[in-house]
Amino acid sequence: MNDLSGYLQYIGFEGRAGADLACLRDVVLRHVLTIPFENLDALTGRRVSLEPGDVERKLLHQRRGGWCFEQNLLLGNALRALGFPVVDLAARVVWGRAADAVVARTHRVLQVRVEDRDWIVDAGFGGQTLTGVLDLASEESQPTPHEPFRLVRTGNERLMETRVAGEWLPMFRFDLQPQLPVDFEAANFQLVHDPASHFTQGLRISRVTREGRHVLRGFELAFHVPGRETRRETLADTRAALDALHDVFGIDTSGLPDLPGRLEVLHRASQG
Which of 14, 114, 157, 237 is most buried when burial is the number of CB atoms within 10 A of its CB? Predict the structure, then answer.
């Protein structure tokens, strides 16, 4: 990582930097509290680079967000620079589907070795991003700063589930085959350019706070607090959406001059 000190300063890390569980938990939580999930490049037809320097520049220095391939690349490299052994894994997203749905590997996850145990870390699952770390050896419910999660064995795979409104919901399946950076390029390209990709067709923005989760899907802005009723509002127009990107999600859109026009097209379509 080129700018570890800048990264740690940006996410507000003030603890002792060492490859232990307390440091891992702190870095992961501060990362997801600081860097939003967003798909603005795909929405506006831009290339999403997975070159480490490009990702660091975008998410750190340009005050943008990103999706799983970028988020977990940046976080993984920061953890490596701190001395953690990190392995990249690929997952099949089944959110909103049956747990055994046949889908491609389009999600990047991290396996981190700490204190003779393996932990699962994931800073890039959008509106349900993991805010803690999960013990890979356990199938029990595991608490996080937000909702509980668990890892269930299914043959040679693990199924990540989260508990929402009293129900365990499947998120993604993965095995422990290590992945190389090149292994994520095809899926990243497909999600950027495929007209069937929901990342090219509408806003998919989220950011965690210590109290809950802000999520923007299209022009519906929601705030989810565990154990409480979700607060929702429909944004009136393009200006309201741009204001939300800045004020709620902390995203600098100054480098996206064609974003307002793209949002206007989406807003007209949403009005029927």
Answer: 114
